[in-house]
Specification:
heterodimer; A: 202 residues; mainly alpha; Four Helix Bundle (Hemerythrin (Met), subunit A); elongated; B: 542 residues; 2 domains; two-stranded antiparallel sheet; 16 helices; 65% helix
Chain lengths: 202, 542
C-alpha cells in the first residue's frame, strides 16, 4: 500500500513540476509573440509583403501533421493506461515519425528561402524594407526555437518509447509519459499560433 | 526527533557531513543529491565568486583615486562590467535560494529532501557550467572581456568587439539555474510539507522562497530570450534590436528590465525571509503580523513585475506610461514598508538577545531603509531626470543589493552556521567584523549619493577635480569594508576547523531545523518525520 501511495505522490509531484516548467516555456515564447505584435503594429504592410513568401500549402500540411501527432500522443497515453504497452509503443513511434516529418518539411521551407537569398543578414534581405527584415528575423527565430523544442520532444519521446517496451512505464506508473504528452501538446499549441501569424496574414 | 548532539554514528543518524552515500572524495559532493551538500557547495562557490567580485570592485575604487594610474579606460569598462556580471548573475541572484534555500527549505518543511533531488543536482552542474562560460569570456578567443556593463544594452552590445556573446551565453545558461531552483522549491512547498504543516504554519523563510520561486520561474525566461536575441543579433544578423535593420533598441530595454527588475525581488525577498526568521528568535517574541508579512511578500512579487519602466524614464516613453510606472513604483513601497514596520514591532518590548545574527538583521533594516527610500527619489519622475545615470544610482543599487542582501546573507550565515557545520564561531570577533563592515560600507557608498546629486556620472573612468574628495573618501571606505570582510570570513573559516561543537539549538530557535541535530543527519530527522501539532515559532494560529 505504501509503495502505491508513494507512486501516486510521485506522479502528483511530477505533474506539478511539468506544469511549472510549461509556464516558463509560455513566458519564453510569449516574449517573442510580444515582440512580433509590436513590430507587426509598426510595419503592417511589410509583414503582409513578407508573408507572401510563405508557402501556404506546405504550412497547412505541416499543421495537419503536427495536429495528428498530438492525437497519436494522446492515444499512446490512453493505450498505456489500458495496459497495452505494445500499442502505446507503436503510437509513440508514429508520433516521433510525424514530428520528424514536420521538421523535414520545415527544413525544406527554410531551404527554399535560403536559396532565394532570404536569410538573416543576407544581401538580398538587407535591400528590402525594414519591416520585411524584421519579419524574416522573427520568422527564423520563432520557427527555429519551435523546431528546437519539437526536436527535444522527439528525443524525450524516444526515451519514453524505450521505457515503454522495457515495461518501465505501466498503467500505474505513467507520469513520465503523461508529462511528455503535456510537453508535446504545448509545442503543438505554439505552432497553432505561429501558423496564422506567419502564413495567413497575407 | 533527535535532541541535541550528533547521532551515535550508526547509519542513518550519521550527520550529512559524515554520510557520503557510499561515495568518496570529490564525487561524494559533486554526485550527491543531498540538498544539504548541494547547499554547502553553492555557498562555497558563491563566496568564492563574491571574493572575485570584491577584488574587482577594489580595483575600480583604486582607479578613481588616480584615474589612469593602474588601468586605461577600456580596462576600466571591462572591469566594471565583470564586477557587475559576476556579482549579480553569479553571486546575488542565485544567492540565498541556492545556498540557504537548498540547505534549509526541506528541513523547515519537515521533509527529507526537495521534490526533485536529481534535478537539483543537475541544476548545480548547470550553475557551474554557466559560471565557467562567464569566466571563459575573460580569457578566451584572444578577445577582450565584455565592456558593456552588466546590462548588455544594445546597440552597443551588438557592436562591441569584446566577448559579449560568450558572457551573454553564460548568463543565459545561469538562467536555467534560477528557473529550475524556483521550480523545484515551489513544487517542494506544494507537495512535501510535513503532516500538520499547513500553509499558514510555514516558516516565513519558506514563504519568501515560495514567492521568489514564482518570480524565478516567470521572469527568468524573459531574460533568456532577450540575451538569446542579442547573441543571434551579433552572430546571425537577426536585428530585432538593431535600428539599422528595422529593429528597436528600446524593445531591448523593455525586455531586459521586464526580467531585471523582478530580479531585484529574487535577491531581496529571500533576504527578507532570513530577517523574518532571525528577528523573532532574538527578540524572544512571536513575529508581529505573520499573515501581513506573507501577503506583503506575495504582493511585492506580484507588483514588482509591473514596475520595470522606472529604469527607462529617460529612454523614450510616453508621459502616460511614465506616470503609471512611477505610481506602481510607489505602490511597491507599501508592502515593503509593511514588512519593515512588522520587524520593528516584533522587536518592540521583546526581551532582546544581542547576538551576532541580530546585529546583521538590524543592519539590514537600517541600510535597506536608506536604499529603499533613495529608490523613491528615483521613482519620482522629476528627480529621476536629475539623478539618472549618476553615482546616485550606483549608491542606491549598492545599498539595496550589497547593503541589504549582504547583511541578510551574513545574518543567515551567522544564524545557521552552527546548524550547517556543527561548530560555533567566536562571537566577539564576529561583532568586530560587523562593526568594521558597517563603518566601511557607509564610508564607501554614502559619499556616492552626494557625488551623484552633484552630477558625477556612473561608469565614468575619469572626473573633474571637484569630485576628488568624495572619490577619495569612497576609496578609503572600500579598504575599511574589505578589512571587515576579511575578519568576518577569517572568523567563520577558522571556526570550521577550530570552533567548539555547537548544540542542536544555540539560539532558542523554534523552527524545525533547530529540532534536529547539528549538523543534521543525512535524512534530516533521525526517525520519523515531525508532525506539526501547532503553529511553529511565531506563526499565530489563524
Amino acid at each position: 500500500m505504501a509503495v502505491r501511495a508513494e507512486a501516486g505522490q510521485k506522479a502528483v509531484t511530477a505533474r506539478y513540476g511539468m506544469w511549472f516548467f510549461l509556464y516558463t516555456e509560455f513566458i519564453l515564447f510569449g516574449m517573442l509573440f510580444l515582440l512580433y505584435s509590436v513590430f507587426r503594429y509598426r510595419f503592417p504592410a511589410d509583414f503582409h509583403a513578407g508573408a507572401m513568401e510563405e508557402n501556404i500549402l506546405t504550412g497547412s500540411v505541416n499543421t495537419a501533421v503536427l495536429l495528428t501527432s498530438s492525437l497519436t500522443m494522446a492515444l499512446a497515453i490512453s493505450a498505456v493506461k489500458k495496459g497495452n504497452n505494445r500499442l502505446s509503443a507503436g503510437l509513440q513511434l508514429l508520433t516521433m515519425a510525424l514530428g520528424i516529418g514536420f521538421l523535414c518539411i520545415k527544413a525544406y521551407e527554410w531551404y527554399v528561402k535560403i536559396v532565394k537569398g532570404l536569410y538573416p543578414g543576407s544581401p538580398v534581405l538587407l535591400k528590402m524594407h525594414p519591416g520585411e527584415i524584421i519579419y524574416f528575423g522573427l520568422y527564423y527565430t520563432m520557427t527555429g526555437l519551435h523546431g528546437l523544442h519539437l526536436f527535444a520532444g522527439v528525443a524525450v519521446t524516444a526515451y519514453m518509447f524505450y521505457f515503454t517496451i522495457k515495461g518501465r512505464i505501466s498503467a500505474d506508473n505513467c507520469a513520465r509519459l503523461e508529462n511528455t504528452g503535456l510537453y508535446w501538446h504545448f509545442v503543438d499549441m505554439v505552432w497553432m499560433f505561429l501558423f496564422p501569424l506567419f502564413y495567413l496574414i497575407t | 526527533m533527535g535532541e541535541g548532539g550528533e547521532g551515535e554514528g550508526i547509519g542513518k543518524d550519521k550527520s550529512y557531513l559524515e554520510n557520503a552515500g557510499g561515495r568518496s572524495g570529490i564525487a561524494a559532493w559533486m554526485l550527491s543529491t543531498d540538498h544539504k551538500r548541494i547547499g554547502v557547495m553553492y555557498l562555497a562557490a558563491l563566496m568564492s565568486f563574491f571574493g572575485v567580485g570584491v577584488v574587482l570592485g577594489l580595483v575600480l575604487r583604486l582607479n578613481m583615486l588616480h584615474p589612469g594610474a593602474i588601468m586605461n579606460a577600456q580596462q576600466y569598462n571591462e572591469t566594471f562590467s565583470l564586477h557587475g556580471v559576476i556579482m549579480l548573475f553569479l553571486v546575488i541572484i542565485p544567492g540565498i535560494p541556492a545556498a540557504f534555500g537548498n540547505f534549509f527549505l526541506p528541513i523547515m518543511l519537515g521533509a527529507r529532501d526537495v521534490a526533485f533531488p536529481r534535478l537539483n543536482r543537475l541544476t548545480w552542474w548547470i550553475y557551474l557550467t554557466g559560471a565557467a562560460i562567464v569566466l571563459a569570456s575573460i580569457f578566451l578567443n584572444n578577445v577582450n572581456p565584455p565592456d558593456t556593463g552588466w546590462t548588455f544594452y544594445v546597440p552597443y552590445s551588438i557592436r562591441s568587439q569584446t566577448n559579449v556573446s560568450l558572457a551573454a551565453l553564460g548568463v543565459f545558461v545561469l538562467g536555467f539555474t534560477s528557473i529550475l531552483t524556483g521550480l523545484n522549491f515551489v513544487t517542494t512547498i506544494h507537495t512535501m510539507r510535513a503532516r500538520g504543516m499547513t500553509w499558514f504554519r510555514l516558516p516565513l523563510f519558506a514563504w519568501t522562497l515560495y514567492a521568489t520561486g514564482w518570480v524565478q520561474m516567470l521572469a527568468t525566461p524573459v531574460l533568456a530570450i532577450t540575451l538569446l536575441l542579442v547573441v543571434l543579433g551579433r552572430n546571425f544578423g537577426i536585428g530585432l534590436f538593431n535600428p539599422a535593420r528595422g529593429g528597436d533598441p528600446i524593445m531591448y530595454e523593455h525586455s531586459f528590465w521586464t526580467y531585471s527588475h523582478p530580479a531585484v525581488y529574487i535577491m531581496v525577498l529571500p533576504a527578507m525571509g532570513i530577517i523574518s526568521e532571525v528577528i523573532p528568535v532574538f527578540a524572544r517574541k512571536a513575529i508581529f503580523g505573520y499573515k501581513f508579512i506573507v501577503f506583503a511578500a506575495l504582493a511585492i512579487a506580484g507588483v514588482g513585475y509591473a514596475v520595470w519602466g522606472h529604469h527607462m524614464f529617460v529612454s523614450g516613453m510616453s508621459d502616460n506610461a511614465r506616470v503609471v510606472f512611477s505610481f506602481l513604483t510607489f505602490l511597491v513601497a507599501v508592502p515593503t514598508g509593511v514588512k519593515v514596520f512588522n520587524w520593528v514591532a516584533t522587536l518592540y518590548k521583546g526581551s532582546i538577545r544581542m547576538d551576532v545574527p541580530l546585529y546583521w538583521a538590524v543592519t539590514f533594516i537600517f541600510l535597506f531603509s536608506i536604499g529603499g527610500l533613495s529608490g523613491l527619489i528615483m521613482g519620482a519622475l522629476a528627480p529621476n531626470i536629475d539623478v539618472h545615470g549618476t553615482y546616485f544610482i550606483a549608491a542606491h543599487i549598492h545599498y539595496v543589493v550589497f547593503g541589504s542582501v549582504g547583511p541578510a546573507i551574513f545574518a543567515g550565515l551567522h544564524y545557521w552556521f552552527p546548524k550547517m557545520f556543527g561548530k560555533m564561531y567566536n562571537q566577539r570577533r564576529a561583532k568586530l567584523g560587523w562593526l568594521i563592515f558597517f563603518i566601511g560600507f557607509n564610508v564607501l557608498y554614502f559619499p556616492m549619493f552626494i557625488l551623484g546629486l552633484k552630477g558625477m556620472p556612473r561608469r565614468w573612468f575619469d572626473y573633474p577635480p571637484r569630485f576628488h574628495t568624495g572619490q577619495v573618501i569612497a576609496t578609503v571606505g572600500s579598504w575599511i569594508l574589505a578589512a571587515g570582510l576579511i575578519i568576518i570570513f577569517g572568523n567563520l573559516i577558522g571556526a570550521l576547523f577550530k570552533g567548539e561543537k555547537a548544540p542542536a539549538d544555540p539560539w532558542g530557535g523554534r523552527t524545525l531545523e533547530w529540532q534536529t541535530s547539528s549538523p543534521p543527519p543525512a535524512e534530516n530527522f533521525s526517525g520519523a518525520l515531525p508532525v506539526m501539532e501547532e503553529a511553529g515559532y511565531g506563526a499565530e494560529e489563524a
